[in-house]
Write a structure and sequence with these properties.
Helix content is 27%, strand content 30%. The longest helix is centred in the C-terminal third of the chain and has 15 residues. It has 311 residues and is α/β, with parallel strands linked by helices. Strand 7, helix 4 and strand 8 form a beta-alpha-beta unit.
């Protein structure tokens, strides 16, 4: 296993690489681009890399299904931190290309919903075809396969292209969240501004089934930050749910919610507790009355006294 190698969704010039380079430790790691999210994560599973950075959520399109599905299946992995990167696209072309020359465009599938309105207004007749990543789309433009690619402006120099149009986004303040994933280990100590991620499976599809699962969080005052359903592949109506909850597994309210889920779900996969990107403990609203750790401890002490005949 290479303890100094990090993989990421490549090729060079992706937003994922830009996000990875914001991490202080990236300066001392070998950064290896991979052709897909599964390939990046498999390198960690196979001990060819210590960690992988992959996209998991976009503020416009929602969850990145390739990452959610990979984390839900196969050998377990754990999220150790997250990076949130503002996203704006440039239209990259070969030198000399004009807007009127563009008949085909490409980019990652998650990019398309973020530039759909711009495309309709400026290139209504252009044919869109998806690429494995935005940077891979830039590579295909360099090779002459497409006329233009939506990618980060920083990718232009890598692929010998020019940014014909800059700062393209249908939604203001669009962001993508990336996660650094490694092999399972003890979670880092809580910071006071944390997030816990799990994947849960239902026993069966029935009225109120999802509500029963969500109540495990609600009754303990745990705020949910992401709820994404994904098909299990076992037939229509069979779903698992990827959930991000506010708090750390060591918080009593979060830990007890996870125990509650474990009692009623056929499978619960813990994906990690890790610091929230760009959030300080002072920014976090405290737990609602009755759900703080001291109150859980006091309630447990009261129950023990009752069991001992000392109510």
């Amino acid at each position: 296993m290479s303890a100094t190698r990090y993989t990421y969704l490549g090729p060079e010039g992706t937003f994922t690489e830009a996000a990875l380079r914001t991490l202080p430790e990236a300066a001392t790691r070998e950064l290896v681009p991979m052709v897909s999210v599964p390939a990046a994560l498999d390198a960690v599973r196979n001990e060819d890399a210590a960690a992988a950075l992959v996209p998991i959520e976009n503020s416009v399109e929602g969850g990145v299904t390739a990452t959610l599905d990979e984390l839900a299946a196969g050998e377990p992995l754990m999220i150790y931190r997250e990076v949130v990167l503002p996203i704006a696209f440039a239209l990259l072309v070969r030198p000399g290309t004009k807007l009127s020359d563009i008949a085909t465009v490409t980019g990652h599938p998650v990019a398309q919903p973020q530039v759909r309105k711009w495309l309709r207004a400026n290139l209504p007749d252009a044919l869109w075809e998806s690429a494995a990543s935005n940077a891979d789309g830039a590579r295909l433009v360099r090779e002459g396969r497409y006329d233009a690619a939506f990618a980060g402006e920083f990718a232009a120099a890598t692929y010998g292209l020019e940014p014909l149009v800059k700062d393209i986004h249908d939604a203001q303040n669009a962001e993508t969240r990336f996660v650094l994933v490694g092999r399972p280990a003890r979670p880092a100590a809580p910071t006071g501004a944390d997030k816990t991620s799990v994947v849960i499976w239902q026993h069966d599809d029935r009225p109120g089934g999802l509500l029963e699962l969500l109540q495990e969080f609600a009754v303990r005052g745990v705020n949910l930050m992401l709820l994404q359903s994904r098909p299990t592949g076992a037939g229509i109506g069979n779903y698992c749910f990827a959930i991000d909850a506010e708090g750390h597994i060591s918080d009593r309210r979060v830990g007890e919610a996870l125990m509650g889920l474990k009692r009623i779900c056929p499978e619960v996969r813990f994906l990690g507790s890790y610091p929230r990107a760009g959030v300080l403990p002072a920014d976090v609203t405290g737990p609602r009355p009755g759900t703080s750790d001291p109150e859980f401890t006091a309630a447990a002490d009261w129950l023990a006294r009752c069991q001992d005949g000392r109510p």
